[in-house]
Design a protein that fits this description.
The structure is a homotetramer. Chain A is mainly α. Chain A has 13 helices and 2 strands. Chain A folds into 3 domains: 129 residues, Four Helix Bundle (Hemerythrin (Met), subunit A) (Up-down Bundle), CATH 1.20.120; 99 residues, Helix Hairpins; 43 residues, no CATH class. In chain A, 68% of the residues lie in helices and 1% in strands. The longest helix of chain A has 32 residues. The first copy, chain A, is flat, with a radius of gyration of 29 Å. The first copy, chain A, starts with a helix and ends with a helix. The C terminus of chain A is likely disordered. At the A-D interface, helix 2, helix 6, helix 7, helix 8 and helix 9 of A face helix 9, helix 10, helix 11 and helix 12 of D.
């Protein structure tokens, strides 16, 4: 039993962590397998390739399903709390990786299974989660979190603009120029405001073109807003977590994270270190 | 009479404010109604849906008009100054929300009423106005206000570029390549400079393509300008700028953010650096 | 004679400056005239309008030419150094404003004169030059100047990318897919890298589409470069001109523009105010 | 022999460096030759020009090959370690510049040689390397280096988005609307997410258009991410970050940029605030 628990613990370290050589090797093999399975899905969708190698891809898909099934079983076995793992975000994604292969037995040519097979790509982030890139991803995430409310206000404004302009274009241009309904008008407004400009629906009347010009310049200008929001937040996130505390003397309100004294006026930031004991402190510092 | 005033006051709090549970519930119901009425307008514009459910949508529109009319009446009744409310920005928008339903009696299929019905969407910002998002919206607005003059200079430059390049292209490409007039040329220049690129009008002559390349690279580069302006202003709005503190000696009242000494007279700005204990500390410093 | 000089001086103030009411009124009339003349040029280029009102526009153009000619004569007369004015940038632009009307006598339908007529728009900046917008324009210009060298490096890199990718696409796609020559390939590369995407020339081969994807993601990412350059420079320009001088004690290298003492360590920044006299200084400050 | 070494050393300075007048002249001539050879390549690819001047361009190409061969020989001769030079990045590029001319003897019309001939453009950066632009390029490079990991995370996220959305669109729209395979779907997703929007493949079904709108708004918003990353890094690279100065008491070695006092022990970081004169000043402060 004891050696069994030890073996299980060792397996858990290999499967769930990446601090050991074996753990990193496991992650790398997994990463390569995921990419290879994705590559097969993509390749299989090309008509001419499917005709010649479709049979091979079916076998390979069976192989990948087997590998991912074994991996899922290992994770369930090695996990200290199998149920909690099974219903966690990554646990469900891991299960999803097996599903298409199993379902394909019943529904032979089900197109919609493709999406599930591609969702496997999300598993890359599981591996990424354990790497040095995590810190960088955290900067980006904390900047996104910090700008969430501003982005919401921005997106609400964009939605309003797009709805109003889409309706205006529907009324002005009408169905004869491709604006067959308000949703179509909104679609056009989004295509234009985001400066994508497919060109499948374009204004033909002079009034429509004037309105378009307005939408385009608006879109060109307000791209500055999310950029500005995100840049300001990221600069904040990168400057490092700072201590938010008003200095009792000079009211300086941000300090280095471990600051005990204000860097501007030299006074103690917190009650205890302050006032009377201050004189002894200099010597005490040296004696310690 | 007194209980009437109290009831009216209570109504005012529910209808105009969102600090109470009842007030927030009123706002939420209003928000849902607005979105639902918008959804109906958008859906009704689709030909196939209109054929089957047009009669239902007409009834629903009557319902929304009734709801908004009741709401408008309540606001007029609850407002301490009904006339001031009626002619305020949101008062007019609230009135506009009823108008299409009433006008539809006389003008059955009036397309232009659609725009008025969509303008109801602006009422969302009335609800937003009372929420915690306000602070974030204020950051954005103050950054926009701060960059207004710079943006004006930028837009004037863009207008000039667009007019000159539009005329150049009209002369170079001519009507046979779609540049039928200078306004058309300006429209093309806007489509190109903003990097939208519909592709409905494209240069065909070598000279026109060289000029286009110039416009595109220009547009790609000067998008940096509004972004830079807005980012710099937003960063300003988000951090406190300068230290507001009178120098005890020369009374200079603004300093660099982290200034410990006055840059004009060199004296310490805050107590500790100039206080009595300073003498002991100074020696301790030297003795170590 | 003396009253003549006085009158001329007064005329100079009205025509060249905008500090007086008369000067501002002159600028406003000029601005309106320029915009109106531009509007006529643009309107005249529309075929249907030209048919009906072409005769009217010809007369109006004569009127504008007369007005601008009178203005040019006034400027020449009022200028203290007429020759210097005549060969200055704005002097030449002012002359250009008259030219098309005069040349139109000989070359009736000269299309190329249109460009000269539109170049009149540059005269708007002459009026702008004298307005409160100047300060904002200066911020933008100083940021552009500061980022000039970085932008040059960036544009050279973009040129190289565009040439190499254009040639690659010409070789891969070939004339049968619209890439008839290397210049055409470069044109396509610019259209794609700047995210304009007209769609008049698009890759058809798989290899071409893979390469396109690379160019697009590159273009999408490196737009960050000019934006970053400009934002950083503008933030610098807006922070106010700073004193670049190493503090002799703590080596702090930027200070407020009028700083005499370092705001970090309180020591004199320049030799004379320093060392021995330092003790007297405090009192001297007060006595002065 | 000695004079030979001297001559070789002098040649090395001219060929490899740009501090002397002769060195700069050599660089300029090289730059002009490279640009001229590029210009010929580009011109030669235009069908109509090739017909008339193709024979001339062949001779010119021979000339350029001769010049670059002589230059390569000179560099090999002047270099103190010819082998190391030959296998360095620029050594190989220099060799590549001769190759097409030599290979053209055997393969008359080899299209792929064009690419090699255009790669000569990279040699411009060799000249740039020795110029005052180097410092500016270094700012940009150090900002890019600093943002490398963040950009990797960003590109991985973009790749995942593009793959998932491309597959979704392939399933939703299908081959009848141009989405013939998943790679085609991914190509469309890249075209849309980067806001290029060629318009060669566009969604036709309502569901496809809704999904497209999502992709477009996503693309429009996340362009903020690389811009934010790069701007924040460039701003970092352009300003000195933290104060590097040992605290005389506790030896803490990095401080906030404008720190006057150590935030750990509260002692003054620089002489004046703790020196002898401080005592007089302190009282003067209080007496005023």
């Amino acid at each position: 039993m004891d050696s069994n628990t030890g073996w299980r613990e060792q397996l858990r370290i290999i499967v769930f962590q990446s601090d050991t050589t074996a753990g990193r090797r496991f992650d790398k093999i997994l990463l390569v397998t995921i990419f290879f399975s994705l590559f097969i899905v993509v390749l299989d969708s090309i008509e001419s390739v499917h005709k010649d190698f479709g049979w091979l891809f079916t076998y390979l898909e069976w192989g990948f399903t087997a590998i991912f099934a074994v991996e899922y079983a290992l994770r369930l076995y090695a996990s200290p709390k199998p149920l909690k793992y099974a219903f966690s975000f990554y646990g469900l994604i891991d299960l999803l990786a097996i599903l298409p292969g199993v379902l394909a037995i019943y529904y032979a040519d089900a197109q919609y299974l493709l999406i599930v097979r591609v969702v496997r790509m999300l598993r890359i982030f599981r591996v990424l989660k354990l790497s040095p890139y995590l810190k960088q991803a955290n900067y980006l995430l904390s900047a996104l979190r910090g700008s969430r409310q501003k982005i919401t206000v921005f997106l609400l404004t964009v939605s309003t603009l797009v709805t109003v302009f889409g309706t205006l274009m529907y009324v002005i241009e009408g169905p004869e120029h491709g604006f067959t309904s308000i949703p179509k008008g909104i679609y056009w407004a989004i295509v234009t405001l985001t400066t994508v400009g497919f060109g499948d629906i374009v204004p033909k009347t002079p009034l429509g073109q004037i309105l378009s010009s307005l939408v385009m310049i608006l879109g060109y200008s307000i791209i500055a807003v999310p950029t500005g929001i995100f840049t300001a937040e990221l600069a904040n996130a990168m400057r490092g977590q700072q201590l938010q505390h008003d200095c009792p003397v000079c009211a300086k309100d941000t300090h280095e994270q471990a600051a005990a004294f204000c860097s501007r006026c030299g006074n103690a930031l917190f009650a205890k270190a302050g006032s009377g004991e201050d004189q002894q402190r200099g010597k005490a510092d040296i004696s310690t």
